[in-house]
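In response to reviewer comment 3 from the previous cycle, which asked for concrete evidence that the modeling workflow produces usable outputs, we include below a single protein chain processed end to end. The sequence was submitted unchanged, and the resulting structure tokens are shown without manual editing.
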Amino acid sequence: MEKTHVKIKFPNQFGQYISYIDNLEFEGNRVNDFINTLDEIYGDIRERLFEPEGRVKPYINLFVGSKNIESLEGVNTRINNGDTIALLLSRAGG
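The workflow returned the following structure tokens.
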């Protein structure tokens, strides 16, 4: 299986769970492969990002480049070598 190298942009609230890494090389080329790798290395990442039925939690936006994976193919969204994976937390209130 091919290896994919990505840049990672996570807020500090999540950075602590992934040792503040900003790059990752993993086997595969889908969001699911990326999440599985993070989960294997750091544990509980999938649980922190996804609902039990597999959807991204409502207060989290996960992007590949400038596209939200929810508007693409969800965890099956393709990741290309050199892409940036970004996680943004939704804010509410006024």
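Residues 31-42 form the longest helix (12 residues). We consider this sufficient to address the reviewer's concern, and the full set will be provided in the supplementary archive.
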